[in-house]
Amino acid sequence: MTDTIGSMTTMGGGGVxxxxxxxxxxxxxxxxxxxxTQDMTLNIxxxxxxxxxxxxxxxxxxxxxxxxxxxxxxYMHRGFEKLAEARDYRQIIALVNRxxxxxxxxxxxxxxxxxERMMELEVPERASWIRVLMCEWGRVxxxxxxxxxxxxELGAITPVFFAFREREDIQHMMESATGGRLHxxxxxxxxxxxxxxxxxxxxxxQLVRIVRGRLQEYRDLLLDNEIFIARTKGIGxxxxxxxxxxxxxxxxxxxxxxxxxxxxxxxxxxxxxLHVPVPTGTTGDSYDRFSVLLGRIDASLDVIEQVxxxxxxxxVNVKLPxxxxxxxxxxxxxxxxxxxxxxxxxVSDGKKNPWxxxxxxxxxxxxxxxxxxxxxxxxSDMIAILGSVFFVVGDVDR
Amino acid sequence: xxxxxxxDIVWLGLVLKIALVVVFFLTVPLAVGYMEHKVLAHMQARNxxxxxxxxxxxxxxxxxxxxxxxxxxxEDIIPAAADKWxxxxxxxxxxxxxxxxxxxxxxxxxxxAEDLDAGIFFALAASSVTVIGILMAxxxxxxxxxxxxxxxxxxxxxxxxxxxxxxxAAVVLQAGSLSLVDIVxxxxxxxxxxxxxxxxxxxxxxxxxxxxxxxxxxSRPPFDMPIADSELIFGHMTEYTGLRYAFFMLTEYAGMxxxxxxxxxxxxxxxxxxxxxxxxxxxxxxxxxxxxxLGKIVALTFVMVWFRATFPRLREDQLQRMSWLVLIPLAIxxxxxxxxxxxxx
Amino acid sequence: xxxxxxxxxxxxxxxxxxxxxxxxxxxxxxxTQQYPHVKPDLPPRTRGVIALMEENCTVCMLCARECxxxxxxxxxxxxxxxxxxxGARARTRNVLDRFAIDFALCMYCGICVEVCPxxxxxxxxxxxxxxxxxxxxxxxxxxxxVWMDTVPAPPELEEGAEAPKEIADGLEAARKAAAKxxxxxxxxxxxxGAGGAAAPTTAAAQAAPAAPAEExxxxxxxxxxxxxxxxxxxxxxERVARSKAKAAYVxxxxxxxxxxxxxxx
Lengths: 398, 345, 265
What we know:
The complex is a heterotrimer.
Chain A: E1 40-44, E2 56-62, E3 65-72, H1 80-84, H2 89-96, H3 104-119, H4 125-154, H5 159-178, E4 187-188, E5 191-192, H6 200-223, H7 226-232, H8 240-246, H9 251-254, H10 262-265, H11 286-308, E6 329-337, E7 340-348, E8 356-360, H12 362-368, H13 370-374, H14 379-388, H15 393-397
Antiparallel strand pairs in A: 1-2, 2-3, 4-5, 6-7, 7-8
Helix pairs in contact in A: 2-3, 3-4, 4-5, 4-11, 4-14, 5-6, 6-11, 11-14
Chain B: H1 10-43, H2 63-72, H3 84-101, H4 119-127, H5 130-140, H6 144-175, H7 180-189, E1 191-192, E2 195-196, H8 204-217, H9 242-267, H10 282-310, H11 316-344
Helix pairs in contact in B: 1-9, 1-10, 2-9, 3-4, 3-5, 3-9, 5-6, 6-8, 6-11, 8-9, 8-11, 9-10
Chain C: H1 13-27, E1 49-52, H2 62-66, E2 72-81, E3 91-102, H3 111-115, E4 121-124, E5 138-139, H4 141-148, H5 165-183, H6 202-206, H7 225-234, H8 238-264
Antiparallel strand pairs in C: 1-4, 2-3, 3-5
Helix pairs in contact in C: 7-8
């Protein structure tokens, strides 16, 4: 049934309105009488407070509804994989820090593991345990950042300050061990650069207690807040099948209900001797992703507590030749970075530089699912969805 | 009651009134702004402005003064595609009505600019004119983000006018007068079963409705979707710089003060320190009453800042639903109950 | 799970717990450090700036080669010195002309510090060296020498850690010397002559145990000024002259005390 109210008036042409008196045409009804509007193309980013870094999303809007969304990446491409072909392994570890910069150590570990696997190098026990400790603290750092920034995008301006207060404490502790607050360059092929300073483990124990207590604050301010629930429940639901299709991993996948965690399914370092809880969600919407994030912080704190009493004494590195060369061959190492599964595919031709170092970074695949999530969402929901699909642009573009 | 400023020479009285309002208008929003900086900061476990000071007093007291000077010396930028006259006039159209509302609000016994017979009506009507200023700013900016922000703002402000007016209408019913001074006097004499109290208790629902609606009228969190900075940069104010932007900011803070003053007068007993306790006579009473009103205004603005620190923002359609489907029916119910109580009791 | 907000519902309890939290934080003291007035307390390993101890540098160029950014600029030339003995070949030495680190390029990875075989580069927690011109961010060796004064001692390691090689070697040497002293029947309950070897500084550990006959004589290490001046006049570097002068002093003192003992008892 055609509805003449709200039609655009044009003179001449077109059909006769059924049932109208006479045949004089004053209006032309198009599209079943819907108001004919034009889709607006809006460019979110690359400079935008909501996108974490230089991500550009081109969206076609119909009023407030998103018809089509297309992320445009590459604004932060630094040519890392090409650089890696001209750097030796210690230099690569220094550079690889810069991808997921919120949790730098987790990036370093993969490279070291790949080279050690190819060289069949035996890493001292103590080094493996300390590596796990550092990885888990890196995970806490990363997730705290997203807890804060997600609230900030939705308008809750307070949790981000609390999250950064915790991050400052953790970064200070990391600085006492590695010398850096953001880019650690602490891992080496065969172990670690140097041992922990005195007092580090005591500080770590104290900090676990403090961060755990403060997790309740984030629940009070965000997870239990009715406005937050209304903004995130049912927004951007992701089904497991779609997630698998796009290669989504990490908290985004766990929120859909799949307990896939490389620390559990394919343990590396000493994770096979640790109990790693893996929280899952149900519908994969923004609320579930956020609550999985908080659950993962709790899980990491549990792992850190387990590690505390079990670090054996001994050396933290092995005697390496002056120039570290990986023998010819190739290997693929999967680790669980905070954002998802981080893979390193190393092809070596026996020299001190790799022939090819390909990184399978989690954020790249996490944002590839954005067009599916954003289709049909409202503009305000786009912010909730972007903030809940956790990614770091350095990780996307390398 | 006779206004203290009612002198024989009418024009002198007029000048005095204008001066009073302007001074109040320029200093109290600055104080409120400073309080917002510091309270927000400490709620977020940080210090807030500390360096800018006035003379030997540090702790950031001079921050807003410094901001004002900074805004004044900025370049006046009007986007090339903008509608020049509308763009230039929009901040004024948004700001002046708020100033004008203050004329009708009594701040103490005898401390007011004008006791209008239809005070509350005038106040609510004048404060609605700011919507036009916001729409003018949004349209003339020639910016998609501004336009979207402006449309959201217009829809929101229209939606929340009704609970505001209906809440005030219940108070008018209870007090039996549209004049703000009469409403305060009525609260002074109001008692339920012999217990003196202000309208905040019998009109608790109306108080909540009016307060929430005033937050939405001011685009304060959790209703600040029109200026949601993570999505729309700054909504209708995106293209404004310098003094024009400062005017918009002043509008917001002065609006906070004005709305708090209205809530004080309507629900919290105006200048009365406690229900049942009368003020001393004469000039001392006027001063004490003025201080009491200021204290109540500050407390209410503190609550507004507290809400800003704590809550994320509501999505536009949730906001609209809340207004049309929840607040307005409740407001109408409130009026009905008040009317019945008035007739029966 | 608390009851969810229906599409147009009214606020329930979750909102109040948030309000309570912000109010509690309002009255809690703040942990902010007001930076320019209060300097941060940085741990000793902090990577602030790189310092160069020129005496230790042999211009092996390992740091410049290993730097991922190639931000270390080294220039040197070879000098020959006459042979020590007749018939030997002339000795060549690298002399450092220019050693500059371009901190505008530096990524603060620390590979240069780690790779230097002669401990010429050190980390210092200094970070306030920003300038108005990017050219001034290239620090030449004079500036790098200034940073040496700010290099802190390395922190002690966690329990269970292996001791660092310098300390481990020094302790090993002290242990051997103590065993020898016990075996060599020395009646005096004096400490072994390896004065200061147990102190965890590399300089002290380098003060090797004295000659066996003077093991029970403890001498405070000082510099024999004459020997020092003579060596410096010869053209030796200060570091070399210092250590040789110290050794000469200790030798002389021990010989004197030994002679005293023998003459008296």
